[in-house]
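stuck on this:

***
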Amino acid sequence: MSPVLQTTRLEKRFGGLIATRALSLRIERGARHALIGPNGAGKTTVINLISGLLTPTSGRIEFAGKDITALGAHQRVRLGMARSFQINQLFGDLTPIETLGLAISERRGTGAQLWRRLGHSAVVAEIAELIERFHLTDVMTARTATLPYGKQRHLELALAIACRPRLLLLDEPAAGVPEAERAELLGTIKALPADVTVLLIEHDMDLVFGFADRISVLLNGALFAEGTPEEVGRDPRVKAVYLGEAFDA
């Protein structure tokens, strides 16, 4: 079976700085794949290249068997790719209901008729299902800008799933979430639909090793190690440069 995502010798240069070096990744369909590494390893650059926010200097990106290297970010979304950001990119003046209604209506090709479509039973049912699944019932009519940060992260995940992606790119979804809200968020991430392939960047190793079925380790923009969580957790090279000698997978 062909992978849902594949990069071939992907490289990104910023002047004399090489942020991504000849990176070849293979993300299988339905995988929970984590991308880890020290700060500055190039993880977010890779996600930005995959999602189309950056154009590679060289190399190739294939999504569902199609070469998407030259496609824009909006074209990749329409093909079935969605992402989150380290700092959320939500509409502060909209409520969760309105935000999800906008995403669903856009996916259905009726975005210009959002307010009328919010009265459509199928749209309302989908919004209600997402609101419940992502623990937003208690804040569904509040302005997004007023929500606790953990709830904003839940909404960002719900917004991504509302696009019905085949591939979901998560860039540090737990970053900045208070400890009291963290357990609920981690549970939501682990319960993401099984038919959605997930590529995750995260520094929380409890989340990574509790979620991923495969891990790729980046160092200086290049692939340093790769394998199952057990293999990566036992790798003495990975422990030395990132996990720490005392790490126990």
The longest strand covers residues 17-27. The beta strands are 5-14, 17-27, 32-36, 58-63, 66-67, 81-83, 167-171, 197-201, 214-219, 222-227. The radius of gyration is 18 Å. The chain has a mean pLDDT of 87.
